[in-house]
Amino acid sequence: MSVPTPRETSEFPPMMRRLFTAHAIRVAYGDTYDLREMWELRDALDLAIVEAIRVGRHVQPAAFSWGGIGDALGVRRQTIEQWYSRRHSGAQLRRQL
């Protein structure tokens, strides 16, 4: 596997981790009903990943091949393809509602 090149988005994952951790601490000391918002955030992240893959496969088909995505995630091509197909069909349904 090659060494990842520096990228414009590299500062976002650590920031998001800090935000999720802070939110989790506040929810833990809050109300169990606050968990619903966290659950919805998880769904929003799943949808964002699906959209990133969908758009990436359109604008950068060579980089966003199933094999390329699998390599980046450290999983087999079939694994990510199956994950995407399950999430993508659900994402389409959510967009229609």
List the keywords:
single chain; 97 residues; 4 helices; mainly alpha
Short description:
With 97 residues, the protein is an all-alpha fold. 72% of the residues lie in helices and 0% in strands. It has a domain at 41-97.
Structure description:
The structure is a single chain. The chain is mainly alpha-helical. Helix content is 72%, strand content 0%. It has four helices and no strands. It has helices at residues 12-28, 35-59, 66-73, 77-96. The termini are far apart. The mean pLDDT is 85.
Shape estimate: globular
**How much is the average pLDDT?**
85
Which range best describes the helical content: under 10%, 10-25%, 25-40%, 40-55%, 55-70% or over 70%? Answer: over 70%
Structure annotation, total helices: 4
Total count of strands? 0
What fraction of residues sit in β-strands?
under 5%
Global structural class: mainly alpha
Return Rg in Å: 16 Å
Separation, N- and C-terminal Cα atoms: 41 Å
The major pleated sheet works out as:
none
List SSEs in N-to-C order: HHHH
User: Which stretches of 5+ consecutive residues score pLDDT under 50?
Assistant: none
